[in-house]
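DNA ligase, pasting as requested.
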Amino acid sequence: MKPEQAKAEIEKLTEKINHHNDLYYQQNRTEISDLEFDKLLEKLIALEEEFPQFKDSHSPTQRVGGTVTKEFATVYHKYPMLSLGNTYSQEELEDFDGRIAKALDGEPYEYFCELKFDGVSISLTYENGMLTRGVTRGDGVRGDDVTANVMTVRNIPLKAKGKNVPPTFEVRGEVFMPKHVFQQLNKEREDIGEEKYANARNTTSGTLKMQNSAEVARRKLDCFAYYLLGDETGLKTHEESIHKLESWRFNVSPTYKKCKNIQEVLDYIQHWENKRQELPLETDGVVIKVNSLEQQRQLGFTAKSPRWAIAYKYKAQSISTRLNGITYQVGRTGAVTPVAELEPVFLAGTTVKRASLHNANEIARLDLRIGDYVFVEKGGEIIPKVTGVELEKRPKGSSPVVYIDKCPECGTKLVRVEGEAAFYCPNLDGCPPQIRGRIEHFIQRKAMDIDSLGEKTIEQLYVLGLVKSPADLYDLKKEDLLRLEGFKEKSAQNLLAGIDKSREVPFESVLFAIGIRYVGKTVAEKLARYFKTIEKVAAATKEELLAAPEIGEKIAQTVFDFFRNPPSQREIARLQAAGLHFESTAKEPEKESDVLGNKSFVISGVFEKYEREELQDIILKNGGRVLSSVSGKLDYLLAGDNMGPSKREKAEKLGVTIISEQDFEKLMKG
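Structure tokens follow.
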């Protein structure tokens, strides 16, 4: 393709993708499937890589991330991001209203009410209509520049569209993780044996400070805009500013309302107390603002907060009900999770029958007894949790709950790894929920992506003895599938076709699919690209595994143990025989020079300017070699921060030259 053709195609694709983004994120409708959208985006990414001179800094490809930020610059806010005064009572709201009336000396006023979302405040600066900076609230005076990460939030406009857009303006918003995304993220963490995140707000905060914006993009954050600031907006009320943001295609929650007086404010608060549970994100209150911007200026600020606004906080919804029993669930990794079985009770818009107890430590901390009346709370949690015991109602003669010591599914004695809260069933190859869970993990979209195969079908295949491990899927025949309830000729053919197609899945996804504990999608990609083949991963020592990018002690140990387990070895051999990919097709970087003269390097630790993979590419491109372990033949140990002490000790003992990031840059200059 000629450059002029590429330029025209990039512009056409950009316009098309922006159109579909706008439909989906601002108008809640679609014209094409997710697959069609992804193909458009992939085409644009490929063209921008081939013709980088035509890549725009606000291209929709920025939504997928890829920028690595080692340090977040500190930025002073042009307009301080002050906190609001809080109240939990109607009386204090009425006192607030009295202060407003007195300060305005009889002048008429009205309020504007918005739900207070439980996310992370963000400041977005636009210049000439383009997003130029995204900054966290920080201490209110200064925050962190997280622009690269903010650009991955798909409903934050990269360009403000509409009439009368001023040259410079600032938008305040709340970045949040939707409930369904948070649930899926926790499901994935549970699936690889990691502890689940506590709540969506803290997870959002941590996500915004991730160094790799591609990982931020995968978290699918959202944002509601709620405030417009600028010297040339020409607005008179907060309501006008909200409508202006809507006209410029910002995502504004439609839950706001203008209120004529404090009674309408109280009605609004009552209306949303339970209805807010239907929203896609967590809310913890209502923000009440004087609507007139001129009156806001008259009322002014205290040292910490505006006098013209206040936040009404909903009390955490908690209720007491009887603990009828405790059941224990076994996950794919063997982790045993206790669940409180409750007398059904209505809480925060739903009937609650079960609640999380997290682990044995939590049961001991609460000193739980069967028959106790326990307090159940939703708060910022998606799943209800038990928070306390109503001791005055405790039955006499009750005994503390004794945590089970055998697997509730297969009877195997449970084990507990030092430093971990959970108990595990070690019977990996004989415990039914672990077996079914591994198969469910294997076929999921991010792993082998096998169509037409769900939990119910897996359950039937397991019960009939047709599938006891992922490798068994590749031995299935049409007559086997026709034994399943609901399966006819066509559905059997579709499933077999889906299984056959999974043989095309790349090694990175296969390594994730086989279900090594703690090895999520990203870790599997790092291992596959570092070691290149399953044989090298399997043969790696613990020290060699630790040399791979982002592999710590816990992951290295579980990978090492997995490949020394005979049933795992047999399973891998069967999957290889079935024709799955066990070699990475990631290309080696093209050579640029011989400045490193075939010198060998081991890279360890965290670096200020580079990711370890970047350093590896630089070394290979410039005639060097990258080794996985320290030996007497090694030329350089490239040492970053937080490097394992054993590597340094071994290098010093063997007389290997230890160099810093700065030393490496000098080497590169020749």
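Note for the archive: The mean pLDDT is 89.
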